[in-house]
Amino acid sequence: MIEKDVVIVGAGPAGLAAGIEASKAGANVLIIDLNIKPGGQLFKQIHKFFGSSAHRSGTRGMDIGMLLLREAEENGVEIWLKSTVIGLFPGNKVAVEKGLENEAKEVVTILAKKIIVATGASENVVRFKGWTKPGVMGAGAAQTMINVNHVKPGEKVVMLGSGNVGLIVSYQLMQAGCDVVALVEAAPKIGGYAVHAAKIRRAGVPIYMKHTIIEAIGDETDCVKEVVIAEVDDKFQPISGTEKVIEADCVAIAAGLKPTVELTRLLNCEFTFNGVFGGFIPLHNKNMETSVEGVYVAGDATGVEEANTALEEGRIAGIAAAQSLSLIADKEAEEKKDAIWKRLEMLRLGPFGERRLSAKEVVLAEYLNKVGMPQAEIKLKG
């Protein structure tokens, strides 16, 4: 059986950051990811990051990804790609299936002293008539096609959802040569930043507020050729007689994300539910450790936020795991974690710089007060 100090599931921003911090302290680190390339969402993000200089403001996500990969390699982090964690078992045993469908597969078991789950999030879907036809996909899938694989998902695209993902991906689709023929939003106002909405509006993309898709119509091969939209009432129900038909061969759905938490469920970690997070999430303490000792979480698996937050949470988890293995002195570890928490606070500032508890902090604090779980005390500031 293979033995590792720290096994990390997921080679996205949180997983890479955790692996770098743990390996810097001297831990023998293995990161496992099912994709053919490491880096997760970062390599789909060709836009420049917002925020402070501490969070690489003005740097493109793909460039941040390259820096992280280089740092992981320099610090001796081992990464298994095209590998899927198929089970987590008591005693920190990790079952991994290595290899893709068209390759020879091998199942191996790893004994980990510490496990960090950084599995990210998956896209929500919106069901309408014809939603399973070829050409209907998540906005993240469309973004992967254009920014990673350099393939257009279609010539004429309808985007469903006006959050930051819907707005940013719409603009990137246009940069890739696609014609975004409509952006459809059921709510009465744009969900994402106005600066992103203004960019696509100036480019001539029509935005249909208080509308939804009611059908995707297929051609002779059943691929999308037309999209039927309609206005919705205050209960988000389509209003008969308001239908509009739009010629399109692709529908991209940007309806939010939900944390990928199946692996932490296998270990019976304590959970809570909150819609702000994207659904069910595993509870964790200020070290990102779950209610199961030795199992940590980081990034969107703890509740959907954004890449900079995922990076910071990954750093905390990596440092805490190394600290629990006595690879880093308590004083040094606490100083590093304190500095990271302060940066996280900056990311979670309210309007006009007002400090407010994040949704995560509020829900976790309520839970901890209810059950009195000392191990999972959350660090609240301000």
TrEMBL record:
Pfam families listed in its UniProt record: Pyr_redox_2
Domain FAD/NAD(P)-binding: 4-314
PANTHER family: ANAEROBIC GLYCEROL-3-PHOSPHATE DEHYDROGENASE SUBUNIT B
Entry's Gene Ontology molecular function annotations: oxidoreductase activity
UniProt cross-references to InterPro entries, sorted A to Z: FAD/NAD-bd_sf (IPR036188), FAD/NAD-binding_dom (IPR023753), Metab_Enz_Cyan_OpOx_G3PDH (IPR051691)
Name this protein carries in UniProt: Thioredoxin reductase
Keyword terms of this UniProt record: Oxidoreductase
Keyword Oxidoreductase: yes
